[in-house]
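fyi for ur records
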Amino acid sequence: MTDSHEVWITGIGVVSALGSGLDAHRDAVRQQRTGLSTHSFFGGQAPDPCVCGRVSQQVLPELSETCESDRATRLLDHAVGQALDSSGLSASSDMDIIAGTTLGNIAAASSYYRQTRGNQSPDPAHFGGFLLGQPLHDVKQSRGLTGRSQTICSACGSAAAAMGQTFHRIGTGMAQRVMVAGFEALSPYVVAGFNSLRLVSKQPCCPFDKARAGLSPGEGAAALVLESRASAQQRGVRPLARVVGFGAALDAYHYTRAHPEGRGLAQAMLKALASACLTPEQVHHLELHGTATEANDPSEYCALRSVFADALAGIPATSTKSMTGHTFGASAALGAVFSVIALQERTAPATLNCHERDPAFVDLRVSSRPVEIPHLPTVMSTSLGFGGEAFALVFTCAEAGA
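which gave:
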């Protein structure tokens, strides 16, 4: 990769249960604040009440109860708008957009299905909910975005796959500027589906804790403008951070669980380090997938031990899902945002609710409080998905490429 093809992050938009915008998420990290709270999706019947990270109307007023059928679209649109403003670009700028999601606008599809089953005349506008690319299509049309669009589904690693493709396109000179996004909206279908797999905790999730009992569902969207160094400098803008490495692997061990030894994630991390021309000792913070499920956390730990060996004990690690909930296909995009915040603040965010680390994770340096890292040039972010999907991204501070 030549200097001119360095991949810079020049704009960020984000909305989650923590609030709207980069500063709101930065403040949440500083305040050690969670967005998890109790909600009802089933009229008080089981599995209600559900602890989840739901975006409130106070955060995004347009999320009224009457717009559940396009909730995902509204979340994505909000993040895209912020990213455009943050980068100083307009909708007419020459820029493609690639988004990752697991379930798209499944709430609309659920409405269509219920109407059909109830012998009603289904609203054809809801049929688009079955198409994962519909929210991005709608956002592109409403905002007048002129570039090509693509929606990627790689389970809970969807946004990581989208970012990896974008990193490759800019790094090889195939594109000068691409917006990459991840989005997910909560609905009864989502909550019931993960609850049926016995993966949902009745308490706020506590990643890597001895008492962990499952994930907390979450929703949100994040959009990042990725741009070549040459393109950004031509516009006179400086980076918020840089993307320097990406790796992907598929262990295909089980429909819903990663390999117990973390083989897929270990391969992805090694590939990411190789593409960044870094050694494990040159990683200073880990933004982990950390869903707090019984099977995921040990698998991720085994992968980390395989790659970082004895160096692992000296690297502060975090799971920000204790703040936002597991936002599924959007989680890697949110992870990228938290990675940028960590680089800018030179601080590893707290892993909330991790009060007694599972002794099985003896070398994992997670903390229930933020950890200052005076010298923090490099962060690795990990993502896992059903079917054995595994991804890793490497970010460096803005000064490294300025």
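Residues 92 and 312 are 45 Å apart (CA to CA). thats all i got for now
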